[in-house]
């Protein structure tokens, strides 16, 4: 006789395995798309990040520190100074707030993050090319985590569920009728 409890536990384990596979795939592939930098080079009183190359639409994020950062296209990097930076820099989507960081949604191209003050230790910039791919992989990760949560609930139900009590006579009569 097939046990309902065992079936529930098997289904819970299958959902758990699928959830783990999706979560691990989402994390590992997403990590490949995310690039992080902390180095800045000083040139003529301007602190520049390494060149940031974005293919497709991308997201550039600056976190930490107390400096205001500007995002400038690589083709304009030689023209900037304190007085004209506003003419050459892109506007962050969340405003330029040093205490909370800045985020820039950008089309494909090459960019530099620049500051006129020395970046404090711990200032990190990260960027993602193909923002839509990154978002899709994030969704895969969330689905994996959701399936893992559902599987835990199913497994708990499987372990807690009790079989229906059947009087011994009922089992005996079933066996008699089979023969």
What's the layout of helices and strands?
Elements: H1 4-33, E1 34-37, E2 40-43, E3 46-49, E4 52-54, E5 58-63, E6 70-73, H2 85-88, E7 89-90, E8 102-106, E9 109-115, E10 124-128, H3 131-160, H4 168-178
Antiparallel strand pairs: 1-10, 2-3, 3-9, 4-9, 5-8, 5-10, 6-7, 6-9
Helix pairs in contact: 1-3
Features:
179 residues; alpha+beta; six-stranded antiparallel beta sheet; four-stranded antiparallel beta sheet; 4 helices
Account of the protein in words:
There is one protein chain. With 179 residues, the chain is an alpha+beta fold. The chain folds into two domains: 4-28 and 136-178; 39-122. The protein is built from four helices and ten strands. Strands 2, 3, 4, 6, 7 and 9 form a six-stranded antiparallel beta sheet that branches. Strands 1-10-5-8 form a four-stranded antiparallel beta sheet. Strand 2 (40-43) and strand 3 (46-49) form a beta hairpin. Helix 1 (4-33) packs antiparallel against helix 3. The relative contact order is 0.25.
């Amino acid at each position: 006789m097939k046990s309902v409890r065992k079936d529930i536990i098997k289904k819970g384990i299958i959902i758990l395995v699928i959830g783990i596979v999706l979560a691990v795939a989402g994390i590992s592939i997403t990590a490949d798309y995310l690039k992080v930098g902390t180095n800045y080079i000083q040139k003529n009183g301007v602190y520049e990040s390494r060149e940031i190359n974005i293919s497709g639409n991308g997201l550039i994020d600056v976190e930490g520190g107390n400096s205001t950062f500007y995002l400038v296209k690589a083709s304009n990097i030689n023209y900037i100074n304190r007085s004209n930076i506003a003419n050459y820099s892109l506007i962050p989507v969340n405003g330029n707030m040093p205490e909370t960081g800045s985020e820039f949604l950008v089309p494909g191209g090459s960019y530099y993050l620049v500051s006129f003050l020395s970046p404090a230790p711990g200032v990190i910039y990260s960027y993602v090319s193909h923002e839509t791919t990154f978002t899709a992989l994030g969704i895969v990760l969330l689905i994996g985590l959701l399936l893992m949560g559902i599987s835990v609930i199913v497994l708990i139900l499987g372990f807690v569920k009790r079989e229906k009590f059947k009087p011994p006579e009922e089992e005996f009569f079933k066996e008699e009728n089979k023969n």
